[in-house]
Amino acid sequence: MFDKARLEEIRRKRKEWEEKTLKPSLERFGVDESPQRFYTPLDVEDHDFLERVGFPGEYPFTADVYATPGPQAAMMGGAPTEMVRAGVYSGYGTPEDTRDYYNYMSSMGRRLGGPNIAFDLPTQCGYDSDDPMARGEVGRVGVAVDTLRDFEVIYEPFTGNNDLDRIASNFTINAPCNIIIAMYIALAEKRGIPPEKLRGTPQNDILKEFVARGTYIFPPKPSMRMVRDTITYCTEHLPLLNTISICGYHMREAGATGPQVLAFTFSNAIAYVQLGIDAGLDVDAFVPRFTFLSFGGSMDFFQEIAINRAGRRMWARIMKERFGAKNPRSWILRQAAAAQTGAVTKTVQRPLNNYIRAVIGGVASCLSGGSPLIFPPYDEPLGLGHSMEAWQLNIDAMRILMYEAKLGEVSDPLAGSYYVESLTDQVEEQAWKEIDKIDAMGGAVAAIEKGYMQQEIARSAYQFQKEVETKERVIVGVNRFTGEHELEVTTTRLVEHPYDPVKRAEAEEKQIANLAKVKRERDNEKVRACLKRLAEAAKDEGVNLIPPILEAVKAYASIGEICNVLRGVFGEYQAYHVVT
Questions:
Q1: Are residues 390 and 305 in the same domain?
Q2: Domain range enclosing 14
Q3: Which one of 49, 286, 320, 561 is most buried, by most CB atoms within 10 A?
Q4: Are 117 and 264 members of one domain?
Q5: Are residues 362 and 223 part of one domain?
Q6: Residue 492 included in any domain
């Protein structure tokens, strides 16, 4: 960037500045060192632009995975110009509640697009709604799905120009992911739609469930077999369906630092890529269908930008150098969101401040190669089910950033910043060190079985909370600026959410009745035969389980019944207890 003579001159000038200007200023304010640092070309003196940044849409993709910033808006599904609510993460009570919600949004003139389905905890953990383990949780944090019948109800609004071959569905579920995929295939076949036309993204990232979130069922090795089955089956039969959405977000929410979330996310991703290769697939045949959700986020504005720039560069190098991928599409980090402030940064105290925090995240997203994503709504910590007002504010903020502030018109505008380039390099270096540690342990699965990732995240979470309690880390309205003269600004939800499960306490009883009716009317002999064949298939490691699962799903076997068969063969995972 600069020749050696110029760098030496800058180095000399900086020393002079420190003695003549900075030091007297610090003495005047009575501090030992400056709380702010000034960055110069000396901080990036070995920085090679073509090697470290490059051009948008070209290796190593630090600047952007697209050649122009325009596709970012397209990724948002038109959200800046209209409220696309079906594509928003949503799921409520019974399948009928969720269906009625989609119909309600359509009646308001909202373009449906494809649903991004949130499942309740019993469904995510492989329990039926009538299971004692599910009591009190049915339909509470998502929609209850027990059998194919429930999928049929949820998708009633999606017909005609919005039929399954015209939309892309997202399924935020992991351990029973293959059962949900089987339901989607069965539903398509009932509608005469070939499975090869189906588009969408299942989350299917079971490793981060062991590390941070907890909706696992089976031990790591058979769980990875289930992921392998998704990759191999979908590569052959559902070529337009993404096979996985690898997620750093939940690890970040659990307490992982920025470098940790890069390292742990990519270590998990490496394990998934190796699954496909070990199954005999060419890396370029399946990795282009890998996606990433996000790396989550803190309120540390510039670090979040650096994390996402480093992440794109790291993934490109992992795929090109480690796995020898030849197709440039395999090098691209297909990410749903760039820098953002995660839900963990939002507070119950003074909830409207969360809107400010989310907007800051949207600005960081734009400056790090993403769309102006404003998320989550300000009322997320209140458990209000995301009021319509909160979503309207978020959508309008996206519009303002895109159309008024014009933040989406330039790719990687901070490229070349001495500070941002230096910070990007630092974050990447720390993440590679963590990946090297995990590689030395035998990879992500071995590191998880040893409890390494869990322990490291627990330590980071403890350190964060300690800093909050000692006020070393300031959270406005929580541990500082809470005096009696501070105003507690509140809001009134003027637009009630018509399908909020909080208001539908009868959802559990209705869903149990729905399930009982299915079990009475289906061919139970056929169900038993299907489940028996599934049990036999599960005992053979080489058998792909999606075909027998699909057969059982078509017979209206329930998620609980299918998972119980697999529990009988695979066992259940016992959580590693972290000691800090």
A1: yes
A2: 4-38
A3: 286
A4: no
A5: yes
A6: no
DSSP code, position 439: H
Q: Is the pLDDT of residue 420 over 70?
A: yes
- R_g over Cα of the chain: 25
Last residue of a domain, which of 448, 467, 483? 483
What is the pTM assigned to this prediction?
A: 0.91
Q: Strands of 168-172's sheet, edge to edge?
A: 89-90, 116-118, 168-172, 199-202
3-state secondary structure 35-52: CCCCCCHHHHCCCCHHHH
Is 57 domain-assigned?
Answer: yes
**How far apart (Å, rounded) are the C-alpha atoms in residues 146 and 139?**
11
Number of H helices, E strands in the chain: 24, 6
CA distances from 382 to 38, 491, 515 (A): 40, 12, 31
The pLDDT tens digits of the residues spanning 482-513 come to 998 888 887 765 555 555 545 556 889 999 99
Asked whether residue 317 falls in the same domain as residue 427, the answer is yes
d(CA 94, CA 511): 6
- Report whether pLDDT(146) > 70: yes
Scanning the structure block, which residue is given the tokens 């036309």?
Answer: 197
Which one is predicted more confidently, 388 or 332? 332
Last residue of a domain, one of 483, 516, 535: 483
Q: What is the DSSP annotation of 63-125?
A: S-SSSSSHHHHHHTTTTTTS---TTSEE--SSHHHHHHHHHHHHHTT------EEEBPHHHHT
Distance (Å, rounded) from C-alpha 254 to C-alpha 460?
9
**CB proximity list for 126: less than 8 A, separation 6 or greater:** 175, 176, 217, 559, 560, 562, 563, 564, 567
Instruction: Tell me: do 340 and 466 sit in the same domain.
Output: yes
Same domain, 468 and 580: no
Domain co-membership, 197 together with 207: no
Cβ-based neighbours of 565, under 8 Å, separated by 6 or more: 531, 534, 535, 538
Cα dihedral 359, 360, 366, 369, rounded to 10, equals -130
Q: Is the peptide bond before 60 cis (omega within 30 degrees of 0)?
A: yes
Domain total of the chain:
3
For residue 206, give the nearest of 232, 174, 231 by alpha carbon. Answer: 174
Q: Coil, helix or strand for 380?
A: helix
The helix or strand, by DSSP H or E, that contains position 172, with its residue range, turns out to be strand 168-172
Q: Is residue 76 part of a domain?
A: no
CATH number of the domain bearing residue 403? 3.20.20.240
Q: Is the same domain home to 193 and 208?
A: no
Cβ neighbourhood burial of 20 (10 Å; 0-12, 13-18, 19+): exposed
Residue with the larger pLDDT of the pair 73 and 380: 380
What phi, psi does 144 have (nearest 5°)?
A: -80, 125
541 in a structural domain = yes
Count Cβ atoms below 10 Å from residue 405 Cβ, excluding itself.
14
